[in-house]
Design brief:
It comes from Mammaliicoccus vitulinus. InterPro entries: NRAMP_fam. By secondary structure, the protein is mainly alpha-helical. The chain has 21 helices and no strands. The N and C termini lie far apart (50 Å).
Length: 439
């Protein structure tokens, strides 16, 4: 079986003789690309809606989702380093042809759902910043393939650095905005305690599943299992053990940053708007509310809304990079078909903009309908997630794939199976409740 993402495999130097801190710095990077998927526009819309509509109670969902993500991404890193294969290659190896094609289609749909969120987020940001009509904004997002091509030519390490700067920009913006909004501290910390309303309130459950789908994204599992192999570590048990250690540290640090950003987004919505604006929680609503906010005076309101739109644009463009890499990994792993990155990007983006254009055609430039489509993509990701998690668990429990040394520890396996089962049950419950509304 060929190498995963052969053009970047083993291209980043890794000195096995360096001290621990230098090893960490050499491995710092793949976690950044993974973390992007945990703070894309899909996360924003679900976290904002959750905060504005239900206050701080869904902070618990963000916490559990982030801890679950750390577990799953560490398993992905372990899989990629120990087996030398990514999740798509392993799934194709473990299944028959029909099941493999089904898994590929589902993975592609998940990537498409992610791309739709990026398209909508970027188009809305362009509309907020420059008053560009949504139809034109969506069209412009197709051209970001040119931006991606220029970034790829800089080298993989440069890509990681650019992504890191954009993530830091988003983090600083939201820290500043939450500071100005002065959230109620006691209610904020109480939000990390589980509440029965999350399950009993169908609206809250819908948003909670959206947060889960936006936080633990299927394409990230494929992505991480591949890009951890970009480091030129020794392909021996000792070298792999060291690489797994630093890959896990890198991943956990970056996902902790993503956790903070998602909490800040929800807190901003809750602190400024919970209890006073029932329909609030969407990008346009929040931008307008921030513009007219009395926090920091008239200048403060204009600054907050502008920074919000800039962060949204940065988030959408950041996600473009990882979406392209994930699509390439999935296609090569399942179908063993290699396309040039620019061609793959054009195909993926054109397919993704079709439902967005269709929505705009049916409803005009309806802000509500466009944002409803974005929330639906996140719930779809949650529904698709078990089909990525289960092969991951099976593969990392298999000594023939991992080797006896690198199979999951018992507690990791138990937690992962519990997560897969709980998520599946919640998904079935949501589907039944949704269907019952129309009967």
């Amino acid at each position: 079986m060929g190498k995963s993402l052969e053009e970047i495999n083993s291209t980043v130097s890794f000195d096995a003789e360096a001290n621990a801190f230098r090893k960490f710095l050499m491995y710092l990077g793949p976690g950044l690309l993974v973390a992007v998927g945990y703070m894309d526009p899909g996360n924003w819309i679900t976290s904002m809606a959750g905060g504005a509509q239900y206050g701080y109670i869904l902070l618990f969902v963000i916490l559990i989702s982030s801890l679950s993500a750390m577990l799953l991404q560490s398993m992905c890193a372990r899989l990629g380093i120990a087996s030398g294969m990514d999740l798509a290659q392993v799934t194709e190896h473990m299944t028959n042809k029909s099941l493999g094609i089904f898994s590929w289609v589902l993975a592609e749909l998940a990537i498409m759902a992610t791309d739709i969120a990026e398209v909508i987020g970027s188009a809305i940001a362009l509309n907020l910043l420059f008053n560009i009509p949504l139809v034109l904004g969506v069209t412009i997002t197709v051209l970001d393939v040119l931006l991606l091509l220029m970034i790829i030519k800089l080298g993989f390490r440069k890509i990681e650095a650019i992504v890191g700067v954009l993530i830091f920009t988003v983090l600083v913006i939201f820290m500043f905005e939450v500071y100005l909004s002065s959230p109620e501290t006691s209610s904020l910390f109480a939000g990390f305690i589980p509440s029965s309303e999350i399950v009993t309130n169908k609206g809250a459950l819908y948003i909670a599943l959206g947060i889960i789908g936006a936080t633990i994204m299927p394409h990230n599992l494929y992505l991480h299992s591949s890009i951890v192999q970009s480091r030129n570590y020794e392909r021996t048990d000792k070298g792999k053990k060291s690489a797994i250690k630093y890959a896990t540290i890198d991943s956990n640090i970056q996902l902790s940053i993503a956790f903070v950003i998602n909490c800040l987004i929800l807190v901003l919505g809750a602190a400024l708007f919970f209890g006073s604006h029932e329909a609030l929680g969407r990008f346009f609503d929040l931008y307008d509310a921030l513009s007219h906010s009395h926090v920091g005076g008239a200048v403060g309101g204009a600054l907050m809304s502008t920074l919000f739109a800039i962060a949204l644009l940065a988030s959408g463009q950041n996600s473009t990079i990882t979406g392209t890499l994930s699509g390439q990994i999935v296609m090569e792993g399942f179908l063993k078909i290699k396309l040039k990155p620019w061609l793959r990007r054009v195909i993926t983006r054109i397919i993704a903009v079709i439902p967005v254009f269709l929505c705009l055609w049916l409803y005009g430039s309806s802000e509500t309908k466009i944002e409803d489509l974005l929330i639906f993509t996140q719930v779809f990701l949650s529904l698709a997630l078990p089909f990525s998690i289960i092969p991951l668990i099976m593969a990392t429990n298999n000594p023939k794939i991992m080797g006896e040394t690198f199979v999951n520890r018992t507690w990791m396996s138990i937690l992962a199976w519990v997560l897969a089962i709980v998520l599946s049950v919640l998904n079935v419950y949501l589907i039944i409740e949704t269907i019952s509304e129309f009967m």
